[in-house]
Design goal:
Layout: E1 10-15, E2 19-28, E3 36-49, E4 51-67, E5 72-74, E6 77-79, E7 84-100, E8 109-119, E9 128-129, E10 133-145, E11 149-156, E12 174-182, E13 188-196, E14 200-202, E15 206-215, E16 221-236, E17 242-259, E18 262-271, E19 288-300, E20 312-314, E21 318-323, H1 332-343, H2 355-363, H3 371-394
Parallel strand pairs: 14-21
Antiparallel strand pairs: 1-2, 2-3, 3-8, 4-7, 4-10, 5-6, 9-10, 10-11, 12-13, 13-15, 15-18, 16-17, 16-19, 19-20, 19-21
């Protein structure tokens, strides 16, 4: 989506016989059409001019600059720590004739407005500024008059517009399984499985995540952290090719747990807000990339310097695409209710013994019992029947599992 540029005319001087000022402003309108861009060019001059032609050029530039974190040797020289690495890339250019008028039928005038509407490529990266680089769009207007040619350059803001509903390949689940063995002291192993139901969400949408932990070791784990991380990738080409990554946690959900032997399930919701920058993927853009991944960290409750090694068990990151429009709309509260219901699921009782079978089993004994013991057994029978009835009613709706992502 293109949002409107700066308002008001930007005056620039064009020298001919006398000093004159011509004001030019490019307004790009908001549009829901992904493949079109429309707007207007407003022109004001200090004296009447006779316009011949108006040409509009839009180009994109990405720039990055950072310092080396450590010395590197690339034949035939050594690049010391702190050497500046930089890159500048133009990956998009568009040139269109906005207006071409009949010079002999055109009357001189002080102001004019020219409208434009033409095609626009899909999935262009949005205007963006990071720690070590930026992506920006420049609009150049070339105004051809009877005696002068005026060139005006103005930066326009390009808002993100990535409709995930057109990328159905993201409608799939992702899963990572990690197993770590503790060979020191033959302490066993721990298995961590991390699962997300969908691979693409929109800005402001939440991502459900489930983590299952099977602890077969003698060690104790007391912390669990779900993380959604943004990764800014900068690639330099001068003086050498270097890649720098800047990781920023967008959302962290921490849990204080007590994981001993056995299998445990944990659920979390990773939230995003309107300030999150969508993923930028364009086949001609290499200098700057913004991507996201989700991962989970299981934190051990033992010292780092012992023979067990590092106390944390981290899963590899799973890529998540963030767009401007959702892949699918779902109610995260209903998803949470369904997931928790299945995590703490109790199987329904089927083919349970009939009442007379239970009564016969409780009343048929090898020893003679007194009256008070018989009363206690009958009371327990009534309580068991009541509990069985309630459990059957609670689990009667659990035969079908709701699928919120189909």
């Amino acid at each position: 989506m293109i949002s409107q540029s700066t308002t008001g005319l930007q005056l620039s001087k064009t020298l001919i016989d006398n000093n004159e000022e011509i004001g030019v402003n490019v307004n790009v309108f908001d549009s829901t059409k992904k493949s079109r861009i429309n707007g207007s060019v407003s022109i004001v001059s200090t004296r009447p001019l006779k316009y011949k032609q108006l040409i509009l050029e839009v180009n994109n530039t990405s720039e990055c600059k950072f310092e080396l974190e450590k010395s590197m040797y690339v034949f035939p020289r050594i690049y010391a720590k702190g050497t500046v690495m930089e890159s500048r890339q133009q990956f998009f250019f568009l040139r269109r004739v906005v207006e071409k008028v009949d010079y002999y039928c055109n009357d001189p005038k002080n102001s004019a407005v020219f409208n434009f509407n033409f095609g626009w490529p899909n999935r262009l990266p949005a205007t963006w500024t990071g720690d070590h680089g930026n992506i920006k769009y420049l609009c150049k207007t070339i105004l051809v008059c009877e005696d002068i040619t005026h060139v005006h350059v103005q930066e326009i803001y390009f808002a993100p517009n990535r409709k995930l509903c057109l990328e159905k390949q993201l409608l799939c689940e992702s899963r990572q399984d990690v197993t770590r063995k503790f060979t020191f002291g033959k302490n066993g192993r721990i298995s961590v499985s991390f699962w997300i139901p969908i691979s693409g969400i929109a800005v402001g949408q939440s991502l459900p995540a489930v983590c299952s932990i099977n602890n077969e070791s003698k060690l104790n784990f007391s912390g669990l952290v779900f993380v959604l991380t943004r990764i800014d990738v900068y690639r330099s080409d001068k003086p050498i090719n270097v890649v720098k990554e800047v990781r920023t946690d967008v959302c962290r959900v921490a849990r204080m747990v007590h994981i001993l032997k056995g299998k445990f399930y944990f659920y979390a919701i990773l939230k995003t807000d309107e300030n999150v920058s969508p993923t930028n993927q364009f086949y001609k853009l290499d200098a700057i990339q913004v991507k996201y991944e989700v991962w989970v960290s299981v934190q051990g409750n033992f010292k780092k310097n012992m023979g067990y090694g590092h106390p944390n068990v981290d899963t590899p990151g799973m890529a998540v695409i963030i767009g401007s429009e959702p892949l699918i709309n779902y109610n995260v509260d209903l998803v949470t209710k369904s997931v928790l219901k299945n995590i703490f699921y109790t199987p329904p009782l089927k083919n349970f013994p009939q009442q007379h079978v239970i009564s016969e089993a409780l009343t048929t004994v090898d020893e003679v019992i007194d009256e008070q013991t018989n009363i206690n057994l009958l009371r327990q029978l009534e309580e068991n029947e009541k509990a069985i009835t309630e459990m059957i009613e609670d689990t009667s709706d659990d035969d079908e599992v709701l699928n919120f992502f189909s």
